[in-house]
Design brief:
Blueprint (H helix, E strand, L loop, with lengths): L1 E3 L2 H14 L12 E5 L8 E5 L4 H35 L2 H8 L1
Antiparallel strand pairs: 1-3, 2-3
């Protein structure tokens, strides 16, 4: 857990951790940031706490990432096949993709 004075720093820390752990496909940074109401002795009214998941949760999320990425890869491959078919049926499309 890490405490921050502003939400921006907390969200950036959460995002960095999720990217490093390759969990960004299944968890949004905001889900790891909690707002903490401070009492009157502090100079500010609230702080932001970044809560990192425990190992078991990270392992579960990693499994979810695999499933999501397999789905994305499958869809990508289908689109590649459709593009190849379209290019075979319409040769001018090969030139269009090279221009971009």
């Amino acid at each position: 857990m890490k405490m921050f004075e502003n939400e921006h720093d907390a969200l950036n820390t959460a995002l960095s951790w999720l990217v490093a752990e390759e969990l960004i496909d299944v968890v949004k940074p905001r889900r790891l940031v909690q707002t903490v109401a401070l009492n009157s002795i502090h100079n500010q009214s609230k702080a932001y706490l970044v809560v990192m998941p425990v190992l078991e949760v990270c392992e579960y999320l990693a499994e979810e990432v695999v499933v999501i990425r397999e789905g994305k890869l499958s869809k990508y491959n289908e689109l590649q096949e459709k593009m190849a078919k379209m290019e075979a049926e319409s040769p001018f499309l090969k030139d269009v993709s090279k221009e971009e």
